[in-house]
Give the backbone structure.
Amino acid sequence: MSQLSSGICRRLNEAPQEEIDQLASGHTVQLLSIKKVAPTSSSTTATDRFRIIISDGVHFVQAMLATQLNDLVANGDINKNTVVVIDKLACNFVQDKRLIIILDLHVVSRDEEKIGAPTAPPSTQDAPAPAVVEAASSSVASPAISSSTGQTKQPQPQPRTGPSGRGGRSVYPIEGLSPYQNNWTIKARVTQKSEIRTWSNQRGEGKLFNVTLMDESGEIRGTGFNAVVDELYEKFEEGKVYYISKARVNLAKKKFSNLQNDYELSLEKNTEVEECLETTSVPMMKYNFVELSSLEKLEKDNTCDVIGVVKEVGPLGEITSKATNRTIPKRDLTIVDMSQYSVRLTLWGKQAEQFAADDLSVVAFKGVKVGDFGGRTLSMVSSSIMSISPDIEEAHLLRGWYDGIGTEKNFQSHTSGSSGASFGGFNRNEMRHLSDVKESQLGMSDKAEFFSTRATIMHIKSESISYPACPTQGCNKKVVDLGSGWKCEKCDKTFERPEHRYIMSMAVADWSGQAWLQGFNEAGLAVFGKTADEVHEIKERNEAEYNALMAQASGVTFNFSCRAKQDTYNDQTRVRYGISRITSLDYREEAKHLVDLLKSPWAQ
Amino acid sequence: MNDHISMRVNSARLSGIKGRTVRLPCKVLRLSDDTAIVEASDGGQVEIQRKNVDITATYVEVIGSVVDASTIKAMATLPLDSEGELDMQLVNDVIELTFESRFDKLFPRYKETEPSMPAR
């Protein structure tokens, strides 16, 4: 059994700031537990954070693992009961609370039994402080549990001589907020305040606004409705720090926010908001920048933070929203960074109109959404924050780099020209297999969704392959047989002979599954190599030959670009996959692509 | 089971495997009665000894035993012609890929040991 540095936990819990720095390294402790907590910043969802309990055999304290050590958890290098030596730690103080962060450690041994019987350290100079620590730690633990078990009532350690008794000045970390504790105060900076938005639907109408609040431990979204808007909207100012208490903690509606917190605040009539003038301990803005070259790795619809030099500012344009029929101003910027990649970023609304940064300024963006239009693009969403020439290290680095060598560089663009899925172009990089398409329920929402896939035709429904259509260019409406001719209702013209157009249902399959695709004229031409008129004629003339033709078309593989959409037919709603583009395989192209894939880092 | 393994090779990979059976995708440059000169996927030229073996296409895969680093004694050929030219660069890429150690489990390889030693 390893020898732990007993007494260190108590010291860590009690010592003042200066002593902590000296306490930093060389102590042996055992990790009693490692728990993943919801990531604190709204950046790339990949950043996990781990809360650990370290024990010295006599006492245990809570600490956070610095993200640079996350790999150790992922590899299994550290897990429950691992004994480690702390090489470096830091301690952040938030009012009366201390947050210990382990910055570096090395493993001594694993798979040991729990050493000693560690208990919570004794109370320190301030009676409520350990109460805050424990109440906070238990309230943090309980959301982690309760959010998975739902409604289990956690027996809360008696709401201590908690912070409320002291006029709410003992501050909770945002991380520690939960619906089970009401007597809290947070000290946070308003990093973003939305505009007042009004809505009206069948249930009524009203107005609301959102704020994003951030402190050392994390971020949380707050929303105020109707009367609260009048009271609090002016009070909150972006960039300022406030003490907030007596708001309701609810489960977060993830649909409306891309912050990582499981909870959000409802600002009510009795919510207290007090401006705080002592702002030193609250961080300005936490960024987790992603290099532009690695944007490809992020999935569409993720959010990320980026920082770059604005190389190009597009003109103010307008786009009409199909949903609301309103015009929205937009503006495209092109930003570049040291990874020598460039990407387009879209601003909307007021931001687009008011964009006034000089060309070539360094701008930081937090919480921008990744899109796949033409490769990769970025877009501001309501909770994104743009900061021009921020006073942070990365910005200075970028400035120096760009002024020095950046101007001459040619940047690799993410606008790869291989059109994104929304164009219906065949996007080889984003090809999905059929079981994936079905499982991800593409097209189940009301919107049409697009995907590309490669599959083999298994069966074509040969009963109805084509329909008689109006020969007029552009009009494909079905024409009715009047006996004396074929009439098109739309064009109000009668024709002697209709022009047949393909409309087919085909079962296609790949290694993972099967699906029914609906193909139109273009698809039929690709599959049969004959016009619908010809095929129709063969069908009439010689059934055997027709069947042979159908058989010949089966077993052929194509690349499909499809559109998935819900359709209601006779009370039955189903997802239908329509073929927007079909291409035969060019084996050379496909093989080349496979070779490239094998040579890429992915395959190593 | 040392026999019956025939790896697809290019001209460079012919060295060191004298006596082994190989497959060589290649383009026929010159044809004479008993021999042929072909160009392998890496551009190198190889002589094919082909008594009684027919070559019927421009691009063929020659299956035979290695005489030396630039000669193969053909046992059979497969025509590889298709629409347009065969992309020899692509063929070469694939050949080189098959030899990479990360794919050891996918492709049967020639045993390194001498045939006289007991197989492992």
Summary: The radius of gyration of chain B is 14 Å. The mean pLDDT of chain B is 87.
